[in-house]
Every structure is written in C-alpha cells, then in structure tokens.
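cron nightly-structures :: item 1 of 1
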Amino acid sequence: MEMDSLRKLYVDELKDLYSAEKQILQALPKMAKKASDAQLKKAFETHLEETRGQVERLDRIFELLGKSSRGKKCKGMEGLLEEGKEMMQEDMEPEVMDAALISAAQRVEHYEIAGYGTVRTYAQLLGEDQHVKLLQQTLDEEGNTDKKLTQLASSINVEALVEA
C-alpha cells in the first residue's frame, strides 16, 4: 500500500497495533505461569483480560473505518516477545525471574504506549473523535499497567538482590 496520506498511515499503524495485541495475548499466559510472585501473576492475568478488551476496541475502530484488521505483522512486538521468551528459558532464581519478567513486560508496555499515543494523535488530526476515545481508554490502561509493574518492581527487585 502506498502511504500517500495520514489516513493510510493511521490504518497501517492500527494494523500494526492489532498484530502486537494478538501476539501479547499469546505471551501473557506464559508470563503469568512463569511468575512466582502472586501479585505479579495477578497483574499479568488482569492485563490479559484488558488486552482482550483492547483487541475488541481495535476491532470496533476497524469496523467504523470499514477496513480489515489483517495484513500486517508487528515485527517490533515479535522481537520484544522473542527476547522475553529467551529470558524465560534461562535458569534463574524465582525472584530474579520475576524481576526479569517485569523488565520484559515494561518494554512491551512502553512500545504500546508509544504506538497508541501516536495513533490517538492521528485520530485527533483526522477528526475521528470516537476513535480518540477508544484509543485513549487503551492508552490509559497501558499506562496503569506500566505503573503497576513499577510498583511491583520496587519490592521484587529488592528480593532479587539477595545473592546465592
């Protein structure tokens, strides 16, 4: 597709985010299973439910646009999740693994925050007020998840300090 307008770029970026969210839906259950800290496990499970809602909001935006969500693979998210997968295969103490899981999850959150912030701005410029509201809701959830992970890291990282 030739990118000759902001609207086409907007749709392309939405497809990228849709692919990213679908990949995250596959990764979060594995992260929750690997977490030993009960609060971290719960945070991953909660975000899995939120992510399902985020996919539904993107589906709604594509419906409003009369466009398909298919056709793009988010290679950035694929790379972030592959790094996380490799990390989860390492032999680590449970507290260290939890710290590593938070690190991987926050990379994902920051990637999403950047992407959603961008498309929300595009939606504003394109006069897509309904899209703006849907995208802002997702952006708020991603920001809250990032804050929750930071809060959990404050204790989990200290626990991981203890050397064997």
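cron nightly-structures :: done
The CA atoms of residues 35 and 41 lie 5 Å apart.
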